[in-house]
Amino acid sequence: MYQNHIAKPFNHPSALASATIQPPLRVGLLGLGTVGGGTYRVLRRNAQLIADRAGRHIKICMVAVRDLERAAVLVDGDVVLTDDPFQLVQNPNLDVIVESIGGTTIARELVMLSIAAGKHVVTANKALLALHGTEIFSAACANGMMVAYEGAVAVTIPIIKALREGLTANRVNWVAGIINGTTNFVLSEMDSNGLDFDTALKEAQRKGYAEQAPTFDVDGIDAAHKLALLASNAFGIPLQFDCVHVEGIRAVEQRDVEFAKRLGFSIKLLGVAQRTARGISLRVHPALIASSNLLAHVEGSMNAVMVHGDAAGLTMYYGAGAGAEQTASAVIADLVDVSRFMGLAPQNRVPYLAFQESAMASQPMVALADICFSYYLRVDLCRGTHGLDGLAPLLEVADVQLVQSELLENPGTSEYATLLLLTASGPQQNIDALVTSIEQQAGVLGPVKRMRIECLD
Amino acid sequence: MYQNHIAKPFNHPSALASATIQPPLRVGLLGLGTVGGGTYRVLRRNAQLIADRAGRHIKICMVAVRDLERAAVLVDGDVVLTDDPFQLVQNPNLDVIVESIGGTTIARELVMLSIAAGKHVVTANKALLALHGTEIFSAACANGMMVAYEGAVAVTIPIIKALREGLTANRVNWVAGIINGTTNFVLSEMDSNGLDFDTALKEAQRKGYAEQAPTFDVDGIDAAHKLALLASNAFGIPLQFDCVHVEGIRAVEQRDVEFAKRLGFSIKLLGVAQRTARGISLRVHPALIASSNLLAHVEGSMNAVMVHGDAAGLTMYYGAGAGAEQTASAVIADLVDVSRFMGLAPQNRVPYLAFQESAMASQPMVALADICFSYYLRVDLCRGTHGLDGLAPLLEVADVQLVQSELLENPGTSEYATLLLLTASGPQQNIDALVTSIEQQAGVLGPVKRMRIECLD
Question: Which of A90, A407, B123, B440 is exposed most, by the fewest CB atoms within 10 A?
Fold first, then answer.
């Protein structure tokens, strides 16, 4: 079947000519750290390739840094360096500002000043947008500026583009994802190498996947930032970070990871934005996912997001959740988009949060306690207790159905037996009642460990 | 953490006002079958939601069908029906034509006429574009028209958008995917239900996943059409369907599926476009994929595409590969894109095949025989033969390394023993020599079955 066939590309003289006369996009870069440095590096390495796609060069003309001497070694001689970011955002010869300094105070101020100065903005700063996005998008809208932020959610994965453009036909039912690479790395280590949480976290820190102060990641806050952005793009609701129910992974024990696997599940920190009959649920928490689900196979620091729409059904997007060049990939894609669409009337551009401003509307929020889940329950029992006498009447009183149960007589070196229960889906109050009644039984050691099961179907 | 917080959406009076005055996009639909009917249905059901995103209504104004009476029942009264598609594409009151009649003869003629008449075109017809894309894009370029085709590859998955826009920063190293739902369904049935090829194919036909004349799917031609489109978007090479090495799945036996699983692999029909040191390889063939790879877990009629770029690393995209509303999801996303970007100068729009026309260039093609693979070899032996005496010297002479071997003394009800070999990666000529020498050994029954292993790393 193979033929050494050389086809001719299609060429049209007028397209050729007009493509070559487009002036470069003039970019100002705030910060030359991980994201800024990666963006500079990829833009330089792939300059011609990117221009071949974009139809014009994407040129970093000016960079604001703290240490001018260090930066001078990193960038080419024709790049203007400044240690005054306020000067950079006022430069009338720049079209677009890339915010890559992080944080939510100076970054916010500089982004707002950029917009006021008539610059488009590209950022991968999820905290900034989750907390101040409404203000930032509003100012940008008023000034006719674009604010692009593909790198803010699941970094390399063009999930914002998929939601805003690829799935425009769909009523989105839910979005669910592994959107924090640090916690997924920690949970993967606990699973594949049998490490406990603290050791796995230290390993993540050693490898650079976790900060020395890891609370933003480990406690689910970073994932909640991203989830707020995903939810607005999915449902046309305002950014509502403070409506996200957030639980981190500190309470996940290694043996729960092991027991979950035994039962055919993986434990993942999930962010879920779900449309229910009574409103929207926004939640970040560790959950059991059946191993038949693709998300259960997302390992290490990788990210993945599933979207369920009424027309497309289930789609999934997978890629790296962090990294210098990985983030650069998203930032540069945003720059190319900006270079293309800055010529459009603002109302013809892709809306900031997928929906036209006039169409965005709040929807009722549903508390997590009002959503039915299946649960994983772990009951530690005194040695010698065979199962849990009297479980059947407790289940009946609490109105909870069991799907599966398993008694482990000798789980490793522990001094007790362990009863694992998987419940059918039911109201949280019933599970609460069941757990309370189990904890009052003789032979039960300590509190019952519980974790939600996300079905994602 | 949950709060019943109601945030205000950002509104700006001028944006609101301008959003409401945009006229609807006027669409002409060629055909009201699976794709056309699905598109009409989703556009009607989600009309307001889509307008809320697009900033204007997407209105099907005219439909060309064979059976006017049947169509009159399906569409609203304000839609103009015609049984003359040539009249439709000439209608001066239409902005864009959706080609959903299929095939490559009349469809081609109508698409070319639409372009000549100054209409943008949306199609999900991969055969049309793989065979006539160069001509179609060239005409569209000359006339300043868009031709959008997200639904042509892996239907619901916005993979064309990901390649053309999401990954613009990247030098793409390879693209690999399960891009034919029919064959993936057949292989999944052979795997999970132990069916032989013929029975699995009948099951696929019974469920509507396979045509009654299934050769396009089963023999890999459909996947090759899609691969040609993916390769051009990845590498900036012209469409070269006839450079794709194509093997279908007819030769895959159920026991090979079973043996592969035993060795830790799944057999999938893969389309691969790969940049090598000596040029581009385009290939469609059944391959073993390690079960640690996400693609190995893509079941049933689902599709998935992996892209490896130098900045982003590995990303993957997963979704349904067929279906009426699934295809509609892609077609409507294209319509919204067209509605947004028809106001742009052509040179600012996303290029047809990701790269500016002036930047597209042929690259050398590499024959499959010149690429090193690891192989799965199945050697059927006379009963009573213990292993293969003299294998070691054959391996040495052919210069092939073994990674794994397993002798199955009693594989089910067969009358022979089976030797399974996994080789290290090596030149095809060495494998050819090994296979020939094995087949000449006493005790070897029939030809050695061989299949490539795709590592995808």
Answer: B440
